[in-house]
Write a structure and sequence with these properties.
single chain; TIM Barrel; 43% helix; 10 helices; binds zinc ion; 3-stranded parallel sheet; alpha/beta; 5-stranded parallel sheet
Length: 250
């Protein structure tokens, strides 16, 4: 957990450093460079309105656009990676890691795990974890089963691999509705504090939805957090346990 917090903090430090260097060289731009809210690296989601945007199935050719938005808006996301995609798009994975985004395992072949043998489920979870670790140097501690298809064997396999099972409680079905405005409306109509939103950085229509979504969420008082940050003050995430949403102010 310490390492994750540290990574989350790094972006905030980088933002401050950028603002300071701009202040030193071009004083006239101070108002502009400090206008963006600093990244909330230590938010307590038991008392703040938190939301976690999660992105599945990447990295793909569209991931860069999401990362550009997150960086520009000093926000963070959680990415559930398909193992071979992580190997193919190593630079994007490293960018996610360095930016303080959280990275989770989303299997090797994206199957419905509940129809596979235990051995096959174990292979899907463990192999993708190793593929991701071969890029970042760190094993993921989050796992999301494709399609949300889960049973006792899936929980066991995730637990054995040291990962918590992270599902969601808000889906705008961006895999079906390829329309950024629709995606934004669908999330904003149903979002509640503690929401875990599932999106996909595999469709061209999802990245354009993210800038307005983040701005609108912040206008409603939401803090953008990673999934580990969401649970950091309420006991953290346990390997093999299942999570659909985070804590919320009572
Ligand atoms: Zn998926």
């Amino acid at each position: 957990m310490t390492a994750r917090w540290h990574r989350g903090h790094r972006r905030a430090v980088a933002v401050v450093a950028t603002a300071l260097s701009l202040t030193a060289s071009t004083p006239g731009t101070v108002a502009t460079t400090t206008a963006a809210a600093p990244h909330p690296h230590s938010v307590d989601c038991r008392t703040s309105r938190c939301v976690a945007l999660t992105f599945d199935d990447g990295p793909t050719q569209y991931t860069n656009a999401v990362l550009d938005t997150l960086e520009h808006m000093h926000a963070v996301g959680t990415f559930f990676l398909i193992g071979p995609h992580a190997l193919q798009y190593r630079a994007d994975v490293l960018r996610e890691y360095r930016d303080g985004d959280a990275i989770g395992d989303h299997t090797v072949t994206h199957p419905h795990l509940t129809v596979l043998s235990r051995a096959r489920v174990g292979h899907e979870t463990e192999t993708a974890a190793r593929q991701i670790a071969s890029v970042t140097g760190h094993r993921p501690t989050l796992f999301r089963p494709p399609f949300g298809a889960m049973d006792a064997h899936v929980r066991e396999a995730a637990g054995a691999a040291g990962m918590a099972v992270v599902l969601w409680n808000l889906s705008p079905q961006d895999w079906k509705h390829h329309n950024a405005a629709y995606i934004d409306r669908a999330v904003l109509a149903r979002v509640r504090p503690g929401a875990i939103v599932v999106l996909h950085d595999r469709y061209a229509t999802t990245p354009p939805a993210v800038p307005h979504l983040i701005a609108a969420l912040r206008a409603r008082g939401y803090e953008l957090v990673t999934v580990p940050q969401m649970f950091a003050t309420s006991g953290g995430l346990r390997a093999g346990a299942v999570y659909h949403h985070g804590p919320a102010p009572s």
